[in-house]
Amino acid sequence: MTTTLPPVPSGAPSDSAAFAAHSAGPIAANESSGPPAESHLHVDDAHHIDVKGLTKILDGRWAEMRAWGRQISADPAFARPMDVSKEEHRAMTLERLKELAKRNWSAQMLPESLGGDNDPGGNLAAFEELVAADPSLQIKAGVQFGLFASAILHLGTEEHHRKWLAKTMSLELPGIYAMTEIGHGSDVSAVGTTALYDADTEEFIIHTPFRAATKDYLGNAALHGHAAVVFAQLISKGVNHGVHCFFVPIRENGEVLPGISIEDDGQKGGLNGIDNGRIAFDHVRVPRTNLLNRYGDVAPDGTYTSPIASPGRRFFTMLTTLVQGRVSLSGAAINAAELALGIAITYGSQRRQFADFTGINEVVLLDYQLHQRRLFPLLARTYAAAFAQENLLHAFHEVFSGENDTDENREDLETLAAALKPNSTWLALDAIQTSREACGGAGYMAENRLVGLHDDLDIYATFEGDNHILLQLVGKRLLGEYANSLKGMDAGDVTKFITSRAETISARHTPWRRLLQSASDLGSVRRTAASLRDPDLQLELISTRAESMVEELSLNLRQAPNMPKEKAAALVNSHQVELIETAKAHIDVILLTAFNEGLAKVEDEATRAVLVRLRDLFALTTIERELSWYLMNGHLSLGRARTLSDYIARLLTKIRPHALDLVAAFGYTQEHWRAPISSGLERERQVQAAEYYRHHRASNNAPIDEKVLYKRNLETKKRMK
Amino acid sequence: MTTTLPPVPSGAPSDSAAFAAHSAGPIAANESSGPPAESHLHVDDAHHIDVKGLTKILDGRWAEMRAWGRQISADPAFARPMDVSKEEHRAMTLERLKELAKRNWSAQMLPESLGGDNDPGGNLAAFEELVAADPSLQIKAGVQFGLFASAILHLGTEEHHRKWLAKTMSLELPGIYAMTEIGHGSDVSAVGTTALYDADTEEFIIHTPFRAATKDYLGNAALHGHAAVVFAQLISKGVNHGVHCFFVPIRENGEVLPGISIEDDGQKGGLNGIDNGRIAFDHVRVPRTNLLNRYGDVAPDGTYTSPIASPGRRFFTMLTTLVQGRVSLSGAAINAAELALGIAITYGSQRRQFADFTGINEVVLLDYQLHQRRLFPLLARTYAAAFAQENLLHAFHEVFSGENDTDENREDLETLAAALKPNSTWLALDAIQTSREACGGAGYMAENRLVGLHDDLDIYATFEGDNHILLQLVGKRLLGEYANSLKGMDAGDVTKFITSRAETISARHTPWRRLLQSASDLGSVRRTAASLRDPDLQLELISTRAESMVEELSLNLRQAPNMPKEKAAALVNSHQVELIETAKAHIDVILLTAFNEGLAKVEDEATRAVLVRLRDLFALTTIERELSWYLMNGHLSLGRARTLSDYIARLLTKIRPHALDLVAAFGYTQEHWRAPISSGLERERQVQAAEYYRHHRASNNAPIDEKVLYKRNLETKKRMK
């Protein structure tokens, strides 16, 4: 039997293999048997992270609600199924949602007067965790509570609350949020559905006038929804008062009501536990009182009134309720990134491939520089995003709990959510895809979670505000603020100011001045590297870029208001990419600031030291990504720029020993990952294989490697010459 | 009835909306009714593309085989199903493969002596097209013909061909390619499976000695395979001769044979039409003659012989057969990118969102600068990749048809395939994901193809050689060539040479010299922009970067051979990211060169002019991606670098009018796209909606927009003051 034993892995260069066949050095199994499966490399580092303390900081104000959410998402009863039909998945998801409702899910969002806790922040914190159970369950909950119930709560008034809220929260009344149309997703104000008031019967007539006005992509529409909140153009007495929201019954006793046509959206890229569909209305009549009338009402005779005189401002106020979706999807996406990185980094710390310098052990994937470079910058950005998300949740809570509900806070909340939702959702897709590839073929198996996370999270970049559209909003807000900052000045001052800024910027475009300046910046690599670790310099670089870009864009667009409409539109369009880049530059500032704030909360010295390196990695890879901008605008000397990649490489090796702790601090366990590859199975297999080869080396009748004989032969021939 | 008509879309600023309500300007419907649905913007361009001529050039030498492949992939009978269980999909895919076999699919790969056409290039050209039918069908065909049959053909000898090839080609004998193990994917030489020769019975004993040595991810393993070609360590007379390939029966009459254990890999991220699984062997005996013995044989008494003395070279020769997979998957991935961009660009040319400057028409997505910037650089890179793929196919054909099968050509083919497969597969994932997002919610519907393409193509980045592992091979080859180029010199010369190169490079690190030089480079923006269009300058920049990186990396690693093994390994590892970047820089050179060669074949002047712009876009976005490198190394002046983004912006608007022609030239039609959103449906809906609003504006009893009243009111109040 022993003669069947194969030789040690022969992937190493032949001389190492020869060495291996005759050596009895330490073997991989011993190194990797104790959890966590850290490599023996890089353990010269004295810092050890206080994982629990770090989790507490990451969990923030609503740690208890998060814990509740995580407890539910660890329960196999709510786990995303594999290999089921969409029909089964849909039915299962409805049942699971009912089970959540029994546990008073989302009751925290209601004000105390309606039997809730008035804890909108806590409600979202728990909701964000549902993504770890099954994103379909999360989004179905989001449709029911975050959209349907919230529309009734925020756009409706007392009678609506009384009639429908309790039934909605208990899931006796599964609902549909009918805003998007085939023809209009991002441009909500342009929806085609009409709600014409008929004073004779005191009814609204809900109607879909053409195919593109059909409501689409609506969760609960294909099967489960009993009623919908429908966004339509309110027309009364010959005037169109813009988009308003109406409560419209859709099904009764399982039957679709007359005048309503339903189509099933069918199979999607993911989230197949949700029955998305289309709804068209053919002159469907609802009572006048089904108008959710908080921001606009119609009297029996058809007279329209609103507490908000400006139709534009009224429309945007009604849309503010959408911000809840953006805030919570941003948080959910970060959690998805945390799950993916947790799986990939854990697997990477156990999986071995290709012999190391001894020719005996194989190298742990995470010890490869490339593997670190693929995963750690994403880990750093995920930390930054998590800290920023906590701030966003605070901002949301302040407004929605009424703690501090001012117009200014609402506007800031809108902007912050519009900035962070794109960042978080793209980060998630990037982290998931990188993790999938970093896990190789194993990453492609559905049981290892990553492909399912990609499928489900993909659409997070589009729904509740397409990422690029949101970034445009952010960019426009930045331009507006810049313009406001000039408002105190009179016309002459503004002209002078603009001219002087234009000169400054144009000076930046000329490399001479700045470059000669930056020459004095050159010193030893060590000195310049050290200064890039200076958090003030990092923040100055990243925020200067954001500010300069707003300024430059404003200057580029300054003629637009004086131009004919067509030319102005063309000018603005020709700077659209800049506008988006400007918004993204602003997001980097938000993230770095949040990371620094988060860091300030860490008291444990050793943990702090590791997080400082992670922050440095975030800041420096962010600067590196835009390095050409810093060079072109003279903010970094060429000499200093050259030190950046070496410095990043050193950070990677310093973060390496703490990688498992850093993902553990996210608070997810095996129960959340549910991925066999990161369960320890891989380590067991490695131990078993290493034991096998150890026995084999120890035996005396193992086959010898032909390579050894071949080499010996060559040497003999050489000697004979 | 007419009073139910809603107003024009009110997404425009309120003053435009007012204008819209009273204007009777031209409407979108008129603009968009004629195919192709081009915008009225940017049609001042005189060039018109000769689409057919361009397709001919893209299709290259094997145009007929491509046409055959495209005809099959347009047939609904082979279309990727939606919303079926993996069981149904697997059964369906097997039946479809049998249907292909009836049509003599892949017979072209066989030499004339075995009844084929000896047209390996043509065979792959057709195979690459199958991705448009269903990637599961493609990969199942790849397993059967490209791997299983090819192993018998290339690693076996006459008797094997006689016994198994015909049955394999007819699918009477569905086969499994059992190379990868749970524990070893990329490091094939280290597989744990053993094949011990027993001279008493003249049999090999195939055995899986530990769990990690279980064969995994094998297509046809879970259900359909009757036999496998198994890669195992060949041991005879106490010597391990390394990895060889054995023909091992797996199932007979539907029953798994004794000693063989099968596990199903279950649901995967995609390619669920293939029954991937695991196989473990418990001392399974096969006749001596089941060794595929072209490169190594065992005599009845156990004596091993091989035509290739070096075990290392023998191993790599046996692996050469893998190159076919890399070549063809690269081509398939490019085709997938072409499909995705075809769908997204067509939809983008019909879909409208947000009112334009008139307040009446909505803007076609593809007229937004951002939309162009998201899609066109990918379109340009796809053209570059397609031209490069044709060269790769030629290189493959030369070697595999025997036309010009030299060691050098084999090595070049290996390197080129290792370079292009990662590029093409990542390009596909990027193009598919960008297209998905660019199509918004519609892009997430399975019926619109994009999500399915992502699911299936995802693993193309991993199988047949993980992309990063392949890039490492490319990087190492580049280092080797650089070392070879020094070989003519004696030791002293090399030292002198290295020192002088080191000085040159270190001079580049000091910004002074180059910068003062580049100052003379500064001129008017127009002049510098024009010179960036110079194809020689583009190629010089891109190839200089590739060369400098090899040089710099060589210098960084030059001490490694003199170091102790552990330190040498650490040094090499600390430059792994550079090694990968060096390989990628080399790929850019390959692509640009291929684009220029492709361009040289275009005779039609107008087509040429458009393709020149597309080539410029490819070259300039490639340079822009690495702009900081060019700046840090003094290859571009800051002034010239500043002109880059404006120049790219202008190229986008110039390519815009030809975007539909450029995707049409890929040769795919509606039958291949099979995506309702790009079928013209969207345009019909837009026309219908526009007609509705036109009637509405023409009628006299349409409701007036409250915004208009509100504005009028404000003005009245102002006048009253």
TrEMBL record, chains A, B:
Its cofactor is FAD. Pfam families: ACOX, ACOX_C_alpha1, Acyl-CoA_dh_M, Acyl-CoA_dh_N. Residues 320-479 form the Acyl-CoA oxidase C-alpha1 domain. Keywords: FAD, Flavoprotein, Oxidoreductase. Residues 87-170 form the Acyl-CoA dehydrogenase/oxidase N-terminal domain. Residues 177-284 form the Acyl-CoA oxidase/dehydrogenase middle domain. Gene3D superfamilies: Acyl-CoA dehydrogenase/oxidase, N-terminal domain (1.10.540.10), Butyryl-CoA Dehydrogenase, subunit A, domain 2 (2.40.110.10), Butyryl-CoA Dehydrogenase, subunit A, domain 3 (1.20.140.10). Residues 534-677 form the Acyl-CoA oxidase C-terminal domain. InterPro entries: ACOX_C_alpha1 (IPR055060), Acyl-CoA_Oxase/DH_mid-dom (IPR006091), Acyl-CoA_Oxase/DH_mid-dom_sf (IPR046373), Acyl-CoA_oxidase (IPR012258), Acyl-CoA_oxidase_C (IPR002655), AcylCo_DH-like_C (IPR036250), AcylCoA_DH/ox_N (IPR013786), AcylCoA_DH/ox_N_sf (IPR037069). Belongs to the acyl-CoA oxidase family. This is Acyl-CoA dehydrogenase family protein. It comes from Flaviflexus equikiangi.
